[in-house]
Design a protein that fits this description.
45% of the residues lie in helices and 16% in strands. It has 313 residues and is an alpha+beta fold.
Amino acid sequence: MTEEPKRTKEWDRLFDRSGGRGSLVDENYRETARHGTKEFPCAAYEDRYYNDFYPMSWHQEWEMGYVERGSMRVYVNGDCHLLRRGEGIFLNAGTLHAYAGEPDVEVLFPNLVFHPVMLAGSRDSVFWSRYLEPVGSEENAAYRILRPEQEWQRKVLEQIGEAFGAMRDRRYGWEFRVRERLSEAMLAIGAHGVCESGSPGGNAADLERLRHMISFLQGRYQEPVRVGQIAESAAISTRECQRIFRRVVGMTPGRYVTEMRLQQAKRLLAEGDLPLLEICARCGFQDQSYFTKLFREKTGSSPAKYRRQSRGR
């Protein structure tokens, strides 16, 4: 009788099959919709930003992406980096992150979110134990900024682009090509290390408090929320709450709530046929005309036009 391969904490953490892209999050602000399928646990997203913000979240998968057009800011575990065209990022599992477009700049950010099981095959394989597990368990290995000036990073960025293209085109054998490109990219990242030299990382206490405050907001963005209530959810002062949001997220708590509401509105517009008035109510906007004006400022289109464009008609 074959002995069951030894389970490891790192394997269980990475291969938990929950996760999702901005549609639903749990009480800890972890994304909860599946990325890809059980048979092929990888999903490709072509994120577009224009004066908007992808709220803080985290997932159990790994993520790789690059800026194809424009420039954007990534907030990751308390750090903030400006990514210009041609630059990218690798995110480890469990990394708290958010994306924001630069003012009045249209951003195109193709990215892949995938489970290491796609590359490892099984937890008793050499691919997992020798190459992939060390990446996931590397101390403080939250992310790696990828810049084309470094030769090996330029190749990784090319591999991410080729993997994304294969997923988009879906030509015969595309799954093999995606797995091959991501395997090459992860082999390079593992060889050079995830953390950048000198990266200070985030303040653990601030990140934990932020998780509490975001979890509080996740269930209350439909209601009027005061900064004092947000601060109380993490047992800190209003001033400390504002400081943490500005340092970690790059914006005030009030603006964060607005951005969260807008993201929910975009999801409802794209996924259903709810009347605009009901979408406003579900997303915490009390005035439809104000919502329409704000939505146009942030996205460059009206809610009705956004709904048509998101459905390809």
